[in-house]
Amino acid sequence: MLRVDEILRRDGASDELRSVINHILVGCKEIAHKLSQGELAGILGSTETENVQGETQKKLDVISNDVLKHILKQDPNVRGIASEEEDNTVAANDDGKYLVTFDPLDGSSNIDVNLSVGTIFSILEAQGEGSGDNMELFLQSGRNQVAAGYVLYGPSAILVLTTGKGVNFFTLDRHIGEFVLTKEKVCIPEDTKEFAINMSNQRFWEKPMQDYISHCLQGEEGPLGKRYNMRWVASMVAEVHRILVRGGIFMYPWDSRDPGKAGKLRLMYEGNPMSFIVEQACGRSTTGREDIMDIQPTEIHQRVPVVLGSKNEVETVMRYHQEG
Ligand SMILES: O=P(O)(O)OC[C@H]1O[C@](O)(COP(=O)(O)O)[C@@H](O)[C@@H]1O
Ligand SMILES: [Mg+2]
Ligand SMILES: [Mg+2]
């Protein structure tokens, strides 16, 4: 039975990086515990507040954020944190080498209906000096990530982790309170016949996305020549996990509902970590026009269109964008 720390040591992760990951996992175990209690712990429902992005916060968005923030501030290796649920970056320890960005609870519309949610995280090295509340330190492209992962809180809690040496799955053994290795070197099948997109936004998409989905729906008779299945869990963590297990393509493209927004999903908390994981697992990730991890962020809460999953299918969507 191999634990996360043993795999990290084997893969040559430094003591400092292992410490940061282990602190994140302490927080995730606490969140998993609270989720499993649900209504009993009085943690369901919404707060009276909105986050900086104008979204109503669920009680568990706030609780999960506080759990992770509190634990990460205790690790001397963490310089600062940025979270979907914090207005600004937060300083931790001035000598810390690492910056952590996270979406404490992803898919939060699923909480009250007892469906899958997750925590997504990404770790960057702080370049140069400066307090961890300096936003500029965080504005690094996804290519600089030294680790990324998520915990899917489903029937079991599963950690998916990469430090740039492939992607491994770990399952939380609640008897011993540890994540143990359950699948190594995950590789997403290159081809797929399964797509995931919120179809209710169809009329707001750009033409390349309209064309691609319309061709998927035409099945064997259409230009793509295959019959597709569709899934939409409304929880990116669950969606990406399904793709890692059996292939598929996930899309949250730009749409004209709010033309000023580049997309719904966030670059630093969702786009970059998921792209790192997917690319490390033989997949591909793009906005449709450029690799997500090549984007130079200009602000921490920046949004991005996301298309990721099975390599050949993602490249097909990229071709639709090139051809207009
Ligand atoms: O409600 P929609 O439009 O289906 O959007 C679902 C998407 O929004 C998200 O829930 C956004 O994440 P948060 O719950 O962290 O805001 C993704 O997990 C999911 O893919
Ligand atoms: Mg999210
Ligand atoms: Mg969230």
Structural write-up:
InterPro entries: FBPase_C_dom, FBPase_class-1, FBPase_N, FBPtase. Homotetramer. One of its GO terms (molecular function) is fructose 1,6-bisphosphate 1-phosphatase activity. Substrate binds at residues 106-109, 198, 264. Residues 9-184 form the Fructose-1-6-bisphosphatase class I N-terminal domain. This protein is α+β, with helices and mostly antiparallel strands. The chain folds into two domains: 4-183, Fructose-1,6-Bisphosphatase, Chain A, domain 1 (2-Layer Sandwich), CATH 3.30.540.10; 194-323, D-Maltodextrin-Binding Protein, domain 2. The protein contains seven helices and 17 strands. The chain has helices at 4-10, 15-37, 59-73, 207-217, 236-246, 267-280, 311-323, and strands at 46-50, 56-58, 78-83, 90-91, 98-106, 117-125, 147-153, 157-162, 167-173, 178-183, 194-196, 229-230, 249-252, 265-266, 284-286, 303-304, 306-309. The strands form four sheets. It has an eight-stranded mixed sheet, with helices on both faces. β3 (78-83) and β4 form a beta hairpin. The longest helix is centred in the first third of the chain and has 23 residues, at 15-37. The mean pLDDT is 96. One magnesium ion binds at residues 61, 84, 103, 105-106, 108.
